[in-house]
Amino acid sequence: MGLTIGVDIGGTKIAAGVVDEEGSILATCKVPTPDTPEGVVDAIADAVRTVSEGFDVEAVGIGAAGYVDDKRATVLFAPNINWRHEALKDKVEQRVGLPVVVENDANAAAWGEYRFGAGQGHDDVICITLGTGLGGGIIIGNKLRRGRFGVAAEFGHIRVVPDGLLCGCGSQGCWEQYASGRALVRYAKQRAHATPENAEILLSLGDGTPEGIEGKHISDAARQGDPVAIDSFRELARWAGAGLADLASLFDPSAFIVGGGVSDEGDLVLDPIRKSFRRWLVGGQWRPHAQVLAAQLGGKAGLVGAADLARQG
Amino acid sequence: MGLTIGVDIGGTKIAAGVVDEEGSILATCKVPTPDTPEGVVDAIADAVRTVSEGFDVEAVGIGAAGYVDDKRATVLFAPNINWRHEALKDKVEQRVGLPVVVENDANAAAWGEYRFGAGQGHDDVICITLGTGLGGGIIIGNKLRRGRFGVAAEFGHIRVVPDGLLCGCGSQGCWEQYASGRALVRYAKQRAHATPENAEILLSLGDGTPEGIEGKHISDAARQGDPVAIDSFRELARWAGAGLADLASLFDPSAFIVGGGVSDEGDLVLDPIRKSFRRWLVGGQWRPHAQVLAAQLGGKAGLVGAADLARQG
Amino acid sequence: MGLTIGVDIGGTKIAAGVVDEEGSILATCKVPTPDTPEGVVDAIADAVRTVSEGFDVEAVGIGAAGYVDDKRATVLFAPNINWRHEALKDKVEQRVGLPVVVENDANAAAWGEYRFGAGQGHDDVICITLGTGLGGGIIIGNKLRRGRFGVAAEFGHIRVVPDGLLCGCGSQGCWEQYASGRALVRYAKQRAHATPENAEILLSLGDGTPEGIEGKHISDAARQGDPVAIDSFRELARWAGAGLADLASLFDPSAFIVGGGVSDEGDLVLDPIRKSFRRWLVGGQWRPHAQVLAAQLGGKAGLVGAADLARQG
Amino acid sequence: MGLTIGVDIGGTKIAAGVVDEEGSILATCKVPTPDTPEGVVDAIADAVRTVSEGFDVEAVGIGAAGYVDDKRATVLFAPNINWRHEALKDKVEQRVGLPVVVENDANAAAWGEYRFGAGQGHDDVICITLGTGLGGGIIIGNKLRRGRFGVAAEFGHIRVVPDGLLCGCGSQGCWEQYASGRALVRYAKQRAHATPENAEILLSLGDGTPEGIEGKHISDAARQGDPVAIDSFRELARWAGAGLADLASLFDPSAFIVGGGVSDEGDLVLDPIRKSFRRWLVGGQWRPHAQVLAAQLGGKAGLVGAADLARQG
């Protein structure tokens, strides 16, 4: 099979791209994400038609946040779009006349990194995506593992603190409340509030108040040596690394890949994650250690991964 | 392949059995577990020779507590026997003249249940063994998943309480400190100490003191309605069920199998585990629920599983 | 001194009452709580004038939620009214021409119970108020202990869960997030959501959905045997009792008094609190145990206590 | 009253000293702590007689670890000596012919610091002693507050981690498991084990292994910049400061005094404690902040405090 299309459905934009067998993106287009479920289906179809012009494409892979069933056809539940048991595969196939595969977006990104990014050469890889929330994907024996019902690898919702922070999922103490971009901002706000004298750089980058702190301010301030910003990254890393140690006890992969916006900071965040991972890895002296690698494809991992999954059929 | 031998190395006894393709045990023998690493190797070889007399056996599978490498040949670390990078496969093969496979004991038990017990008919099964500690095994796509380095499925050592109880592994807050036979006894002792008037039956079964409480007393007392015994099982179930919910978020299997001595109590412990599982299952209303099943093979699961893994080669 | 006036400033209503030396209320009036800080001052003055008509009153005691300074004159911070360093004593004295004492409302309620309610005869009493939040007061050596700066006894904001639930105070894991009327409702909603079949009575009392559950439904349902309602009270009691055990380690009083709306349920909630208290009381076998008593004055404790504190001057 | 004697009963030595009204020690003697309860009584009497020779002393104050009753006469329970309801006051009075006051050792030390050390000039002071464990004392309104039954101020055993570390007291998650000399050593061992490359200085001061790390090594290594030693102090400080913030919510003192062996390190440990205290202090922007002061009397605080309490009668 030659060219396929990957579609990445984000909260504000839908991106579609033509991808070849090497994972290279030959053409892309973006459209705003409509408000209604049906509107999104139309927008996907439009984007696919637009981007495929002039290319001979054979299949479409769609990455969407939420639960996708084991047939990779139906979105059982999406947190951002009002899809409930939405037969997305059928609807898009009818509109574009190509075979469609639907995949959870973090699974698609994990597959992209495994095939064309940091995971190349590994058979058993766990990817985590530290974005606004925390998602991930599981590759075991060179296959994406989706679970019996299609909803495996919901890493963000394992409970790391009993009676901990409320989560949008309805549970408490979920990992993504402690290791995610949103958590990072919370850490910085709390610390800047308690000890503003240690957050002068950080506060100067925003509107001067703890409430005005945004994610990009924390990265910039940490690079400039702001103590609160650095400490906030460390706190995030403590939780991320401890969670990876748990995943090592469970999956024992040869590599972890850390992606998502937070990972764009590279070793600023990866080094403390590695340190925390080693600190909490059980039996660390008796076992080979998995590598903790930075993702390589950035925001394109999901699109490229979805396209490749469509190619595999 | 016809008959194989399974060997189960326990802390006090080594059991060997001849097992056929249906998982039936045709003959068994037991010997005490020697004190020295070399002594254990000899004892295994003796047991294999003894039990195989009169049978035409083709391979040997050994289940041992600890880390076993990905070649299923070397015990990297055993908690109970002083094995450190012990080339168990080679040593036993030299002595018995048969191909040998070494497997983690909880993995072997999981495989036994999957093949011949509660897991039959399922492709994706997670087994947990609530014994003195907490172990388990992962079957995905009808294969035992051992991880890249052979040490996956160490369920007992995921961290469920930050800064929690010390664990023999050197970490803190490990799941097996909260969901295991040892935890059950601790729960009962603490409660009997604080409110002896609610533990009259329980205390009467032992020596009358909280310190004298043993696991079997708790089961008996719970059946007779002892409030402390019942509450202790509930506490165990709370932690077990919440952990299964985490494993569902990660693995999304079609079934969980709960084995080990604690599970011998059947629905006394399984019903509260199921309740807690449902309470903490994330996205429970949008996804099919995994079944939570009682193991069926009891203490023989490991021996039968090891024999079958040897048959598979 | 003869008669004094107590004023209780609530979120929706301001109550004023004429109280005699025995703690009896001779007359009362209620007015709605105005929106503006200045409006509240006016309303207090009006209520005092209205209720004192025909009585010879000598002083006014005001109970207000928030931090009150050690001179009992200034409200440093109020959570519900926009008072920030509000000189409440001076402002009301100017309007009503009587000496005024300002006190934290939970302190006032504690004093009321100590003088005329469940605490009579005790020299060292700790009161906790399980209302929407969790407050309390400290009596040691027959004196109300307000701390050096007036802000002692903020029981609701000790941290009982590291990295726990966010609190309105900006911290995390505060006791009132786990032991309060608001917590009770959260427990019931979570449980009714996860296992609606165990919450049939509870759900039938509201609008049929977990979201529609209110505090009064939980009490009624618990009395009718609803498993989720009973379990929710138990969870609240677990946290309340464990916290009392901490307070016993710190203060070693002869009695705890439990007040607030939640305590109106009497032994339904007090018995499990006592059980949990005993479970967690450190050194319980070597020390006399404090009693855990139900408050006796209900919603009038604050008004009566404030009046009596004004009498004491 | 002129001179009194203070006695400090330690696990290995009993120290007695003649103390004047200014808190100056005029003479001291030390004897080993005998093994038997009765032997300790004899040794106390001998030490008192020996040290008082040539002085006109009027009373004896004894500081002992454990629960002391509200009459300051009977040791209800001592963790280190097998005293259970030991009538220590009577027994020593009969032997030495002087009035005797028995006090909890941490209370005595708190009183010493309040009268002659860091607490001078404060009316409301909370002392914590970070020794092997964590103890403390409460001064409110210039009086030592012992609770109704004499066992107040057991700070070490408030629960700061639900389901946390086992404590010698039988409970779990006690503060002293996280903030004490013993905790500090555990932090250092765990970290040196996980990341020995960050503990080179620390390991070089002991026997080269994590197991060989002792408290004094950690202080020395921290001063020399060893990352693991510094991080261990920070972890201790995190827990100590968060606990002080809780005590501020409860007691609202004007000062905290931090004593015990850990505090000998001065600002190395006090600065991070102050930082953590500020981080977790609830309502910090609306209230005056208590000072966090280093104890001044070192190991003599208990002896001097006991002597002064005897003087006060």
Counting DSSP H or I runs of 4 or more residues, the number of helices of chain A is: 9
Output the radius of gyration of chain A.
20 Å
Pair of chains with the largest interface and how many residues each contributes: A-B, 49 and 49 residues
Number of domains of chain A: 2
Low-confidence stretches of chain A: none
Hey, roughly how much beta strand do the residues of chain A contain?
A: 15-25%
CATH superfamily of the largest domain in chain A: ATPase, nucleotide binding domain
Salient structural properties:
Nucleotidyltransferase, domain 5, alpha/beta, homotetramer, 313 residues, five-stranded mixed sheet
Q: Overview of this structure, please?
A:
Four copies of one chain form a homotetramer. Chain A is an alpha/beta fold and 313 residues long. Chain A has two domains: 122 residues, Nucleotidyltransferase, domain 5, CATH 3.30.420; 175 residues, 2-Layer Sandwich (Nucleotidyltransferase, domain 5), CATH 3.30.420.40. Chain A contains nine helices and 13 strands. In chain A, helix 3 packs across helix 9, helix 4 packs antiparallel against helix 7 and helix 7 packs across helix 8. In chain A, 61% of the residues are buried. The model of chain A has no long low-confidence stretch (mean pLDDT 95). At the A-C interface, loops of A face loops of C.
